[in-house]
Amino acid sequence: MQGRNVSFFVVEFLFVGFSDLEGWQMLVFFFLLFFYILALIGNLAIIGITTLDTHLNGPMYYLLRHLSVLDICYISVTVPKILDCLLSGQHTISFSGCMVQLSLFISLEGTEAFLLAAMAYDRFIAICYPLRYTLLMDRKVYLLLAACSWVCGFLNSLVHMILMARLPFCGSNGLQNFFCDIPPLLQLSCGDTHINELVLFTVGGTLVGLIPFLSILVSYIYIAATIVRMRSTPGKQKAFSTCASHLTVVTLFYGAALFTYVRPSSTYVLNRDRVVSVLYSIVTPMLNPLIYSMRSQEMKKALKRVTWHIVLLSCSRQPYI
């Protein structure tokens, strides 16, 4: 199925990505629904465990709760619409709906970049300056880090949406993706997109992508140097285990996001880029809670404590007479 050519301004977009799924749409629907439910359950579990367990009330777990809230919002911006398209067979989205989806998606994506950098800074302070951790990462500091992450994500979205609003869409409405994203929209515009691409590379790629990434990299260089200098092997293992989950999440997120945005639109390969877009918009939010729960010893212990507490509460209830 190809995008329809129109001579007037576009009022809706057609998700051409679904054309490759003929005969497989219901199977893809159930797979995505399973991933979506798994992501919701996993992230809600992280929020619940880190809220209920008093042992997990530090800055690291406060930021982790924000990451879980963000991932729930992040995956909910795209997946419900994809599921609706698969189930109904109507692969369209209104122009205004597309702009709203794009705005939320960019905002949440930028927020996650800064939030991951804030979490790396927290690990840097905890491992490199353990005796001053409570002083350097007090309540005001980690509240400010979380707030700045959300504000920076919103400002990033605002910049891109202002530039997107100036572009005319008056040709094909066939969007080469499963949801509204900047690169496929720039390909559809019948206006000059050079400014948008420049801002996408500088603001999206450098300020929102590269700077948080470099801050994470520098933090882990110092962390690695500190771990190497440790004399105790158990101490090294404990320090590394507190960072392993975060490193895995960072690799998944930045690997897909930088590949998608930090390159000119002329280099896009449709089928490959659709797979990458699914990776960073659907799979990553689903895997984040699994990564943290499986690799973090503190999360495993907290899960056992909360589960055991719930079991005890259930067993202690007296039946109604």
CATH H-level superfamily: Rhodopsin 7-helix transmembrane proteins
Secondary structure tally, helices: 10
Number of strands: 3
Beta strand %: under 5%
- Helical content band: over 70%
Give the structural class: mainly alpha
- How far is the first residue's CA from the last residue's CA? 64 Å
- Spatial ordering of strands, largest sheet: 2-1-3
Uncertain parts: 1-8
CATH architecture annotation: Up-down Bundle
CA-based shape:
globular
Radius of gyration: 22 Å
Q: What labels would you give this structure?
A:
disordered N terminus; Rhopdopsin 7-helix transmembrane proteins; 3 strands; mainly alpha; 321 residues; globular; 10 helices; three-stranded mixed β-sheet; single chain
Explain what the structure shows.
The protein is mostly helical. The chain has a single domain, classed as Rhopdopsin 7-helix transmembrane proteins, CATH 1.20.1070. 75% of the residues lie in helices and 3% in strands. It has helices at residues 25-52, 59-88, 95-128, 133-136, 139-165, 182-188, 194-229, 233-261, 270-295, 297-316, and strands spanning 12-15, 92-94, 174-175. The model is unreliable at 1-8 (pLDDT under 50).
Q: Briefly, what is this?
A:
This protein has one domain (20-297): Rhopdopsin 7-helix transmembrane proteins (Up-down Bundle). It contains 10 helices and 3 strands.
Topology, element by element:
Elements: E1 12-15, H1 25-52, H2 59-88, E2 92-94, H3 95-128, H4 133-136, H5 139-165, E3 174-175, H6 182-188, H7 194-229, H8 233-261, H9 270-295, H10 297-316
